[in-house]
Amino acid sequence: MTLNVVALLTTKPGSGPALEQAIAEVRSAMLAHDGCLRYDLQRRRKSETEYVMIEAYETTDALRAHGSSDEFVALSAALGELLAAPPEVIVLDPVGDQTA
Amino acid sequence: MTLNVVALLTTKPGSGPALEQAIAEVRSAMLAHDGCLRYDLQRRRKSETEYVMIEAYETTDALRAHGSSDEFVALSAALGELLAAPPEVIVLDPVGDQTA
Q1: Does A67 reside within a domain?
Q2: How many Å lie between the alpha carbon of A90 and the closest alpha carbon of chain B?
Q3: What is the mean pLDDT of the segment spanning B74-83?
Q4: Buried (b) or exposed (e) across A39-74, using 16+ Cβ within 10 A?
Q5: Average pLDDT in the A34-59 region?
């Protein structure tokens, strides 16, 4: 069953556009990772600094591989400059029927 | 473009199963609402009390209709007994390319 991940990101004031660009630049490489099904950036409505990544992976192994990939390491370094605090990464197991 | 919603829910100790059942019972009715695309419950890995709803709607109007539906009002009342704190409902706008 698909494994979902929700990551809550808060940028420093004014760093939203740079975050959006960093994610856009790496997104296709992330989706090319085996078992990465979704890597979608969202912005909290009415916020300039609060973002949420909605991600999905086929397996825990796929999530682990993502987390140790060169792209992820590089992205984490880049985001370190842009975020006001470390991201909250929430790994989720589905409960009951699922649409995706 | 699809509107995603992430709702963070923390139950009182031992109320997880009751929350899971309450969501399971109402899920098909929620998905029957016009423009409701996803209504999926997740549990935070290694947690007995932390849950996340991942929802998706075609439009803001669809989300509003969901929020004022009889099912939502009834569910909110039922969850009031089970949650340790009010849910954090995060309405999201997509940024850049999206998978879903």
Answers
A1: yes
A2: 6
A3: 96
A4: bbbbbbeeeebbbbbbbbbeeeebbebbeebebbee
A5: 98
CB A99 within 8 A of CB B40: yes
Q: Which two tokens stand for residue A95?
A: 């409960």
CATH at B37: 3.30.70.100
Helix (H), strand (E), coil (C) string for chain B: CCEEEEEEEEECCCCHHHHHHHHHHHHHHHHHCCCEEEEEEEEECCCCCEEEEEEEECCHHHHHHHHCCHHHHHHHHHHHHHECCCCEEEEEEEECCCCC
ipTM reported for the complex surpasses 0.85 = yes
> B interface toward A at CB cutoff 8 Å?
4, 6, 20, 23-24, 27, 31, 37-45, 50-52, 54, 56, 90-100
Rounded CA separation B52/A92 (Å): 8
What's the domain count of chain A? 1
Check the CA dihedral A96-A100-B3-B9 and report its sign.
positive
- Nearest-CA distance B90 → chain A (Å): 6
Q: From the CA of A84, how many Å to the nearest CA of chain B?
A: 19
* HSE-CB of A55 using CA atoms within 13 angstroms: 29
Position B65 pLDDT exceeds 90: yes
Domain membership of residue A99 (yes or no) is no
